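Problem statement: downstream parser choked on a complex file, so we are re-checking the raw output for the zinc ion run. The parser issue turned out to be on our end (a line-ending mismatch), but while we're here, posting the original submission so the record is complete.
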Amino acid sequence: MELRCSQCGATLEVAPDVRLLACPYCGTALAVSATGTLFDEVMRPTVGAGEATAHLRRFLAGPRTVANLDRQARIGDPVLEYFPFWAFTIRDGTGERTVLMPAAPSSLQGLQGLALPAGETRTMSPDVTKGAPVVEPEIPVETAEGWLHDRYGDVSVQRRVLYHLPLYRIAYEWRGRRYAAAVDAVSGRVFHADYPAKSEAPYLLVAALALLVFGLEGLVVSNLLAKALLYLVSAPPILLVAWLTVRRV
Ligand SMILES: [Zn+2]
């Protein structure tokens, strides 16, 4: 396949399975698409491995996961990799911005429509990645551009590049199961696949119990003062059950 270098315009002979290359004439890092080459850019990590683990721990301690997960999970060592995104600079009524779409399949949620983290981007080079794995783009840029239009409508695309964003992959284990997560090594943002989520069922049970108790009391007792007293007496046990549920779940 013959393509033109986006930097110097030289004609390049590219084998069909090649997705990333450096132009032999000008040295520019390029990503190969069906119709031409795009710049391959990269951001340097600014978040350290220890900091990445701390970000994940805060997510595990947060309101969406089961109680005490941050203390009970066995968290593995963070492994840095450079994950590919197609970056589209789009213009719409509100101005210009850059939107990222994943260029490789992943079980991580929230990668579509990610904003480019604030930080300096530069041409992809081994000096930046220092031997960390660089994931090749597998999803064609045309497919990603389709997702872009599904999400943002008929926006005009000003620029297309491949961005390799540094991500720490961190696996953790809880009750014999392994879970996958990643931490953006530029912004510190946590991406999760599935995780041990707080179950809603116990909360619904507590709410049903409260409805049942107060409802019955309201039906059975008609004297207003007696009703108020009864509510006062039955509220503390229900609050206690609710409090225990929050602590345990
Ligand atoms: Zn070139």
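For whoever reads this later: The first strand starts at residue 2 and ends at 4.
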